[in-house]
Amino acid sequence: MTRHNASLGAETVMLLVGGGHAHVAVLADWATRGAPTGVRGVLLTPERHFRYSGMVPGWIAGQHARDDGLVDLAALAARAGVALVLDRCTGLDPEARVVRTAQGEAIGFDVASFDTGGEGQATRLLGDDPRLLDIRPIGAFVDRLAALGSLRRIVVVGGGAGGVELAFALRNRAGAPVAPDVTLVAGAGGVLPGFAPAVQARAARALARQGIKLLAAEARFAGGAICAGEQSLEPADCIIAATGSAAPGWVRASGIATDAAGFLAVDAHQRSPSHPYIFAAGDVAVRIDRPLAHSGVHAVFAGPVLAANLRAVLAGEAPRRTYRPRRNNLYLMNTGDGSAIASHGSLAAEGRWVLALKHWIDKRWIAQYVRLAQMA
How do beta strands 111-114 and 278-280 pair? Predict the structure, then answer.
């Protein structure tokens, strides 16, 4: 497995591409247990910090400080003994075992793992407009939203949990002299498709209670105006798209195994079926052994599994760990007004205690990585 790479030396190279939810768990594993013997780790990521997306709605509503959900990847990588390259992946040659970057570098590897997230697809789905903010990548979204002044009329596109939480958060935007008018364009599938009717009903009632207009129609730009179906939603100061992620173009172009949408295919061990020295997790990946929605919840739980399997492969062993999602996952959706909605299978609950539980879970999860990074 050892590669002789002029830039990295004659040793086994473990390349982590992307600093997402799963890779922070890999870095934490190396920081606490030590790097695998004879292995040099490299982290390629465009951002020095990882931002936990689950805390962004709380920041918008003034419940968290802007930096509360940040982990210093540079410090965590240093603690783990992993070299940091601040750049973006733009290409993969899985046969040559080389990743290419936006700045023209070529990084060789023996084993690689990808946790880059997906790409925003708002412009492709809706059309182009200077008022449009895609929530992907989340760091750029936070920066752009923070730079905006007072917003009187906001349109949120996307009826999934992300869009719903953002609609609530923006209605309660911290520092706003007057609560903005918010319209949530959920799409033809309505609000929270795939969730239990009891959860959908609670969300619809909370939206109505807060004066957030809900439209079950498809959004698009037409003649410079944002529309839902045939209805114009103008005037609008800002259009925020929570429309899911698309696969990065370099994945399909690489020739590695993908699904029909171009996401990097992985088996039950997060391993590529076509190139067994390549692993992936998070929104860039798709499990081929079972359907699994792109969700931060799954990326969080897949992290320790990925860490264990990478350690096994680097020791010359077969990966054995598998992330098996619970039959019903717990989702906690911040309603921005001091309350939250809980979803667990067919069960739904709502109240301030749900928000307190969400804050406790979020802060406990992020704190473990912040503490490790501060020890660097």
Answer: parallel
